[in-house]
Amino acid sequence: xxxxxxxxxxxxxxxNTIDSMKKLGLDAILMFRQESMYWLTGYDTFGFVFxxxxxxxxxxxxxxxxRAPDLRQAKNTSNIDDIRIWMDEDGSNPINDLKIILDELNxxxxxxxxxxxxYGMTGRNAIRLNKSLEKYCYLEDQSELITKLRVxxxxxxIIYVKKxxxxxxxxxxxxxxxxxxxxxxSKILAEMNRVIFEGGGDYPANxxxxxxxxxxxxxxxxxxxxxxxxxxxxxxxxxxxxxxYHSAMFRTIPIGKSDPKHHKMYEACIEAxxxxxxxxxxxxxxxxxxxxxxxTFDTLGYxxxxxxxxxxxxxxxxxxxxxxxPMLYTDNPYVIEPGNIFFMHMILMDSANQLAMNLGETYxxxxxxxxxxxxxxxxxxxx
Length: 383
What we know:
Elements: H1 7-23, E1 28-31, H2 34-41, E2 53-57, E3 62-66, H3 71-77, E4 82-85, H4 94-104, E5 111-114, H5 123-133, E6 138-141, H6 145-150, H7 155-178, H8 185-198, E7 209-212, E8 232-242, E9 245-255, H9 260-279, H10 286-299, E10 311-313, E11 324-327, E12 341-350, E13 355-365, E14 370-372
Parallel strand pairs: 1-5, 3-4, 5-6
Antiparallel strand pairs: 1-2, 2-3, 7-8, 8-9, 9-13, 10-11, 10-12, 12-13, 13-14
Helix pairs in contact: 7-8, 9-10
């Protein structure tokens, strides 16, 4: 069995979860988010794309219901002792196997929380679950119960996040070495991923974003890979990942002769990032961080080029994306606390001039402020 955290760490997480369940009057919770299962037990898989749930009651009993391919996966990566398998066959309904578990735990007519907001909880699975259990027990949406516990990182988790930040820095070093006119985006991606894996890192929860020319204005990965030109612009968003913990970075890099507008956009991004850093303090609301981001860009004339969010929490996440709760947007009431990890991205996409400028860094909130985890300089580099 390969566990990435101490027994005491897992014990604390379980206790905190049970305490939250008691406050909410829950007799049990059905976990469908892979992040919750990993955080609570160490269970590491992408098998959550099929029906899979981790059941825990107020007494601390933990039972995993999954498919046969994940039996050994759960035994090798988690501290789960009781693993049940539902069979793949035509017309099978794993909810029937789940009801057997609920009966064993005496949960008939009890109040059970459900993580409905989960990538494994498809609409079809939700309908089947609700229909099968509507007269059996009381179901309540508790998609954020464990998510809210996960948002404050422990000392053991912070070690992994900082290791991920080191890997992200190494990946940027490779960009500086090889990004120039005549080089393919594929080569850049290959070198970035190489150093992350050689450093002991993992696959990220989503693809790196890379694009040049007009594709530098895209905020998502797409399959086209281009050869860098002179002049050109290269946008890259990536993350170092270690034990599934992420530390992300974002850059737009002028290639060859840079456009003067790029420099003005970069100055705006630096000013916005600095202002956001000053707001990222314990006791402030994350909506206030976004507001200073928006005010900075709007004052400088970039209202139409900026985004309606400027970051999000990071942690141990699984496919299809590394974005975690909560997100930095206006009026978000979440109060910043020490132990929060936030990726703050300053994004400017000027469609009229077909120019992009992006700057993003990951921060650990401390007792008195915050720490930028990446150690790379924030200067605009023209390659």
